[in-house]
Every structure is written in C-alpha cells, then in structure tokens.
Amino acid sequence: MTGRLLRMSSLFVRTLRDDPNDAEVPSHRLLVRAGYIRRAAPGVYTWLPLGLRVLRRIEGIVREEMDAIGAHEMLFPALLPKEPYEASGRWTDYGDSLFRIQDRKGADYLLGPTHEEMFTLVVKDLYSSYKDLPLSIYQIQTKYRDEARPRAGVLRGREFVMKDSYSFDVDDAGLEASYQKHRDAYIRIFDRLGFEYVIVKATSGAMGGSASEEFLAKAAVGEDTYVACTTCDYAANVEAVAVRTPAAVPYDDTPAAHAEETPDTPTIDTLVTFLNDTHPREDREWTAADTLKNVLVTLRLPDGTTEPLAIGVPGDRDVDLKRLGGQLEPIEVEPMDEVEMKKHAALVKGYIGPAVLGEDSESGIRYVVDPRVVEGTRWVTGANVQGSHVIDLVAGRDFTPDGTIEAAEVREGDECPSCTDGTLVAARGIEMGHIFQLGRKYADALGLQVLDENGKLVTVTMGSYGIGPSRAVAAIAENTLDEIGLCWPRAVAPADIHIVAAGKDEAILGAAETLAQALVAQGVEVLLDDRVGKVSPGVKFKDAELIGVPTIVTVGRGLAEGTVEVRDRATGGREEIAVDDAAGRLLEIVRS
Ligand code: ATP
Ligand code: MG
Fold first, then answer.
1. Which of 136, 304, 355, 396 is 20 to 30 A from 105 in CA distance terms?
2. Which residues share a beta bridge with 310?
3. What pLDDT is attached to residue 210?
4. How many separate domains does the chain show?
C-alpha cells in the first residue's frame, strides 16, 4: 500500500498571516489561517483539501469502530418529508432550529437535523419479528440545524457532519446491552482520536427517553460546563445535576411570618447586612442562603407562544438559564423583559414574593422552586411591597409552590449528589458525542412493533448515538493547538510527515523528493514543501508550524554533512539524523 504525496507547490492551500475578523476562538482562527476551512455563509463552511483530510480521517476511525460492533452503515437523504416528523411531534418541537422548505407543488419538506424518525420507519418497513433483532444501523451524513448562535467555525455550524446510529431491541435488557456496546465503541473512538475527554451524565432534552451520557472534549472555550466529584466517579453536565433533596425540617417553633420595612436593600448582600443589624436571628447570623430569590423568565414554546414562569432559588445562587433550558427543552427560556413585567400588576420588581406567585395566585404565574426549598425551610423573601421583605416565611406552612426545578447554578465546592463525603469541581467542555437510551418514544409514535417469541406484538425499544466529526475537527484542534499553530494528534493529522525543502538548490530539492518518495512507498502520507521561487525557508517553517503535521523534517543546510533535522511539532524536540537513515527512522516514528 503506497501513501499519498501532497505537494505544497500544487496543493490548493493559501495560508494567511492575519486572523479572520469573525474568529472567536483559537481553533477557528487557526483552521482558517492554515487553509483548512472557508466560510460560505454564517455557520456554513467549505472544506479545503487539508481540512477535508482531517475530517475524513476522523470519519474513518468512527466508521471502523462502528463496524467493529456490528453496526451497518447506510445513508439517508438530507431532504426529508414532513410527515414522519409530524408524527413524532418534532416538526413543531424543533421550533426555529428546523430548516423547513417547500417543493414547487407547495409540499413541506425539511433538512434533517437528526434521523430517529427515518431509521424507525425503515426498520418498520422491512422487519417484523424479534428474530430480526437486535439491530444497529448508522450513517455519516450532513445535518442541518438553524442554530440560534452558530459559533466558532465548524464547532457549531448550521450545516455539519454527524455520525448517527440507532439500536433496535425487543426488551430493556437488549437496549441496555446495545447501549453498552456503543459506549465501549465511543471510548475506543475517542481514545484513538487522541485528545482529552470526559464522560458525563446528560439530560435527554428534545430527544426524549431516559439514560444518556455525553462525551465532552476538555476545553476552556466549551459551551458546556460539567462537574466531577473529588471522591467518587460521579461526573455530570451541570444541566443534568440533580441536587440531593434535603429532608423536611420541623417548623413548630418557627415564629409566624412577618413583613418588615427593609429600606435601602437593593441587593441580597445589603439585605443580609440589614437583617443582621436590625433583626438578628436567634440561632446564628443570617446569610444569603436564607433568602429566597424569585426570578421571572419568559418561556418560548415551539409553536411560538410565550408563557411566564417564576423560579425561586436560595439567594446565594443565581438561576442558570442554560441549565434551566436543559430541563425545559424544546421550550426556550429568556429573562423576562420590562414590558412583560409591567403586564403583571402584582409583581413589584425587587420585592417579588411567593404570595403573588403560583397558578392559583393573583398573578397566575406558575411558580417552581429549587429542590432545597423543602417543607419547613424558613425564608426571607419579597413582601410584594416596595421596600419590604417578609421574614420567617415557611415553605409548606406559608406558601406551596407548584413544583420544583433544577435551575439554580451548580458551583464548585457543592456537595456531590452521589456520595456522602465528596464535593464538586467544575470545568468546561465541548460536546463531541451523546448516547441515549431512547426507549419507545419513536417506536410508539411511528408504530414500530415486532412479534415476540409468543407471537405477541411488542413495541421495539431504541437507542440513539451521535458523534459530530466536523465539530471534532475544531474540538481536537482546540484541545491540542499551541501559540504557533495547529498541532494534530497523529491519528487525525492531514499528513504523517511534513518535509520542508529548505533551499532552492537541486541537491536539497532532490534529497527532499527522494525521502518523500521512499516514505510514500512505505504507505506514509507526506506533505512535501517543494515550493521554489519567492518562498523562503522561513516562510516554509512558519507554514509547517501553522499547519500542524506532527513530524516536521527539514532538508537543508545539514545536507552538506549528510543530515536532516526531525522535529516533533508537539514537544518541539529535535534530532539530527543521517539522511540515509531518515526513511527508516521516520517510519518508526509514524508507526510508534
Ligand atoms: P449541542 O448541545 O452542542 O447543541 P446537541 O445536544 O444538539 O449538541 P445532538 O443532537 O446530541 O447534539 O447531536 C449529536 C452530536 O452532533 C453532538 O454530540 C455534536 O458532536 C454534533 N453536533 C450537534 N450540533 C452540532 C452543530 N451545530 N455543529 C456541529 N456539530 C454538532
Ligand atoms: Mg444542539
């Protein structure tokens, strides 16, 4: 098997000295500057030859590992009919994120954002017995989502590549096994890709279903925040953290609730100071965690209508809108604006308390609270009068919320929800993959049933498993780059070896060419900088650093003494080796 030789002299690439002005994160900046991608429209990118090679290598690894667990590759169209998505509810649930189009006859179509419906229907079409199952099928295909905030080049695109696979089983044990197989395959895929990642508990969002986990690339620029326990193996996306509900507390001795004037207390800190000065607590000092902060948001439903929602959280924490959004998907959440606020006469900004909240209250606004607000807990909160708070308001005695919700921010140092002595540490990541035990949602909606051993019709249970190869290009770049350029892990680099012919004379060009040919003959992929003319060795070195192939070989001045220089792009480590031994040594490096 011979490798490929890419010549910089003819390759379709132009490296740029300046950063693109829309680049928010380093990987985006470098992928554009190094000639991997070009923007075609907001959130829509063209893959240039170098970028396409990285994308294809990632897809190749994903494909090999999916095939290894017995999944079969197929390919659906991206252009899809509306009906299956109407049957599942996602034609509306996807809201503004769905690209909807019409054909010349006015029939509705969509550009597939993910394909649960189509896979369910094709299995329904062709299979009818438990003997046909279990089954796992997948595709690597272009997806379309009109993301509200396309970001960072191919990291969050409106058109992107996804590997989506689906498992079909007759029973829960089967689904569990299929899920585990996929999970193991994902671990092998991410290990092979060669960057740092974590596996965390996740919410299932618009997908429906129960158990799900995400694979996150560790990256400061990531949009996801996850927490991990210092003691046990608990790790979760903050969206999926379920705070441990404390036990109810007795409140027989708690004084009756009483409203008090609290002038000049615009913030929780000033309120707490005021309380400690003028209404000292009998047992200890007041803290921000004794106050109940009520935050109003507007929910935007997939059909475009809006609804107000009030959320009560301990005053030492903010409401985390992303975490809240994770619980409510496909509903979108935004802070309530002044105009909307004014529509509710009962709401006194800054002094909103439970007395005017709740479905049965004056405002009629649904009121949900943090799980820590259990029966018997005692709060200081707004008295619904300018400049006044109510003290000793007891949950379950003086007010009863409509429900609870996980919306309060999760913080470093919080207690672990899973073990008794650990605390949580937080970090950011980029979602690379997501695996779900979907259960029967889609099979139910679309009528996918098979005959079981007893000849009885049973509804099939499904799993769905996604990876974003195009996002992976950016995430891996982000995770591995340094201050001089991209720095690819060997498994996904656009070439194995980058040979720089550092000089114009025949001896140098000839030796570089010979070395390149020797490597290619051994199956190595070589990027050869054979440019002549105005391109100085300095420019070639800079380009090699920017492009980020893991091994850079310089054929230049050393040639007079019979040596070439081999440099490790990631570590910067250099060695001089005899030109005659170069092919052998490089082969060792590539294969190690
Ligand atoms: P996110 O929360 O980042 O929007 P998601 O939960 O919508 O992701 P899934 O629907 O689970 O993602 O899609 C499976 C995989 O597809 C993700 O893990 C990610 O790798 C990739 N992916 C999703 N949306 C995009 C996008 N807009 N651009 C690039 N890749 C994406
Ligand atoms: Mg998304």
1. 304
2. 296, 367
3. 67
4. 3
Looking at the fold, whether 139 and 232 belong to one and the same domain comes out as: yes
Residue entry with tokens 């000065």: 277
Q: For 463, phi and psi rounded to 5 degrees?
A: -125, 155
C-alpha 587/C-alpha 589 separation (Å) is: 5
Q: Which two tokens stand for residue 266?
A: 């615009």
Helix H or strand E encompassing 300:
strand 292-300
Residues 358 and 218 in one domain: no
Distance CA 372, CA 369 (A): 8
Tell me how far apart the alpha carbons of residues 550 and 533 are, in angstroms, rounded to a whole number.
26
61 and 191 together in one domain: yes
- Binning pLDDT at 50, 70 and 90, where does residue 287 land? very high
| Ligand 1 site residues, Cβ closer than 6 angstroms | 114, 145, 147, 156-157, 160, 162, 431-434, 466-468, 470-471
Instruction: Judge whether residue 95 has pLDDT over 60.
Output: yes
The residue out of 404, 439, 468 marking a domain boundary is 404
Give the pLDDT band (50/70/90) at residue 103. very high
Report whether 519 contacts 465 (CB < 8 A): no
Tell me which ligand sits closest to the C-alpha of residue 150: 1
> Is residue 250 included in any domain, yes or no?
no
Please report, as a single letter, which amino acid is at residue 249: V
Least-confidence region, from 224-228, 266-270, 317-321, 561-565: 266-270
User: Rounded to the nearest 10 degrees, how much is the dihedral formed by the CA atoms of 437, 438, 444, 449?
Assistant: -40
Token pair listed for 187: 């671990």
Q: Same domain for 455 and 306? A: no
Query: pLDDT tens digit string along 463-478?
Result: 999 999 999 999 999 9
* Nearest-CA residue for atom 14 of ligand 1: 466
Helix ranges (H only) for 204-337 are 268-278, 321-328
Domain extent, residue 350, equals: 258-404
Is residue 486 situated within a structural domain?
A: no
CATH number reported for the structural domain that contains residue 589 in this entry: 3.40.50.800
CA of residue 489 to ligand 1 center, whole Å? 22
Q: Please write the tens of the pLDDT for every residue from 503-514.
A: 989 999 999 999
Quick one: tokens of 528? 């050869």
Q: Is residue 103 part of a domain?
A: no
* Domain containing residue 315: CATH number: 3.90.960.10
Tokens of 376: 């018997």
Global pTM? 0.91
Amino acid at 586: L
